[in-house]
Amino acid sequence: MIHPSRLLDAGTDRICFDTRGDRVVDDLPPGPAVMSVVAVTDALKVVSEGFVVDSVDRESVARVTAFAVERTVLERIGDGALSPEELIEAVRAQGVDWVIVDRV
């Protein structure tokens, strides 16, 4: 879980962290909200009621590895713990667009 209030302790204008909410080195391009993704290499399947019912095209899926978010954006999110999906939506709800960086 990502805890924005804990990340704000960093004391920097922009905070870079992984999907667990642990700070990482900020090597992402500038922007108020930047998301680093990598290609998915594992086979992906759709499961319904315990049965594999379909496969997913890996080309249409990416795995998020890190976020870099400006302090002002994180401050407006609040103190509650967020999943990566909830963080993505909370940033969008502020009218901030994500910049997505594909790390091959």
Task: Characterize the structure shown.
The protein has 104 residues and is α+β, with helices and mostly antiparallel strands. The protein has 3 helices and 6 strands, in the order H-E-E-E-E-E-H-H-E. The chain has helices at residues 4-7, 71-77, 84-93; strands at 14-17, 33-39, 44-48, 51-56, 62-70, 99-102. The strands form 2 sheets. A 4-stranded mixed beta sheet has the order 1-5-2-6. The protein is globular and about 45 Å long. The two termini are 25 Å apart.
- SSE order, as H and E? HEEEEEHHE
Secondary structure: helix percent: 10-25%
- Largest sheet features: 4 strands, mixed
Mean pLDDT over all positions:
91
Strand content: 25-35%
Q: Which shape, going by the Cα principal axes?
A: globular
What is the number of E strands? 6
Total DSSP helices: 3
CA radius of gyration: 15 Å
> Biggest sheet, strands in spatial order?
1-5-2-6
Low-confidence stretches: none
How far is the first residue's CA from the last residue's CA? 25 Å
What structural class results from the helix and strand content? alpha+beta
